[in-house]
Amino acid sequence: MHKHVSLLLAGLVASVGMMGTAWAEDDKKPMPGQEIAFNRMTGNCLACHAMPGTKAEMPGSIAPPLIIMKQRFPDRAKLRAQIWDASAANPKTSMLPFGKHKILTESEIDQVVDFILTL
């Protein structure tokens, strides 16, 4: 079973590099949430997650790749809660509590959630 899961995850991570960037449809600029997520001084999601739309040479691999997010989080509020404070659902998580510790503002978290749901 572990071999199958490892192969599936390897395939998902490999596919991330082949996926396009999520762009705001009206002006072809990166979405505001994407800028926050990719910025090392704000979200820094790439430190832990692989995701499409990045040119990072070595995206993080200690957390799940951020792909098929609408299927994984059909309830937007659950994804937002995960970003706000992942330890509420999993006390052993290594994910930073971006909202609880005021790393990101309410507005920034909403923008990141909107972006992640496009992946």
Summarize, please.
The chain has 119 residues and is mainly α.
Structural account:
This protein has 119 residues and is mainly alpha-helical. The chain has one domain: Cytochrome c-like domain (Cytochrome Bc1 Complex, Chain D, domain 2, Orthogonal Bundle), CATH 1.10.760.10. It contains 5 helices and no strands. The two termini are 27 Å apart.
Number of strands: 0
CATH superfamily: Cytochrome c-like domain
Helix content: 25-40%
What class, by secondary structure content? mainly alpha
CATH third-level topology: Cytochrome Bc1 Complex, Chain D, domain 2
Strand content: under 5%
Order of helices and strands: HHHHH
Mean pLDDT: 79
CATH class: Mainly Alpha
- In CATH, the architecture is Orthogonal Bundle
Number of helices: 5
Low-confidence sequence ranges: 1-26
Comma- or semicolon-separated keywords:
mainly alpha; globular; Cytochrome Bc1 Complex, Chain D, domain 2; about 120 residues
Give the arrangement of secondary structure elements:
Blueprint: H1 2-16, H2 32-38, H3 69-72, H4 76-85, H5 106-116
Helix pairs in contact: 2-5
